[in-house]
UniProtKB/TrEMBL annotation:
PANTHER family, alphabetized: GEO12009P1 (PTHR45663)
Identification of the protein by name: Thioredoxin
Key word Translocase present: no
Domain Thioredoxin: 1-108
Family: Belongs to the thioredoxin family.
Record keywords: Disulfide bond, Electron transport, Redox-active center, Transport
Gene3D superfamilies, per database record: Glutaredoxin
Species for this entry: Zhongshania borealis
Record InterPro entries: Thioredoxin, Thioredoxin-like_sf, Thioredoxin_CS, Thioredoxin_domain
Gene it is expressed from: trxA
SUPFAM superfamilies listed in its UniProt record: Thioredoxin-like (SSF52833)
Amino acid sequence: MSDNIVHVTDSSFEEEVLKSDVPVLVDFWAEWCGPCKMIAPILEAVAVEFAGKIKICKIDVDANSSTPQKFSVRGIPTLIIFKGGNAEATKVGALSKTQLLDFINAAL
């Protein structure tokens, strides 16, 4: 994984995501999830493109169960944009780069 994507856990979620000064896109994913693997390189590219404007984080739902439960994550990948500690927008399923950019731009 790259330096542009922050891997968060149940214990670091509040500090990294909810208390962030910039909007945060969180990817709720799992190692066995095909669509999650499909979207990973797209998230990587977007993390570079939007550096400083939005923070990209990933949380493994298998290793961290309380955070996905708190935000009603039922399917993966689930992408949630947080601003000022609040979940502002949600998309479930793999997105194309164009769809992902539209999702981010609409939330920013």
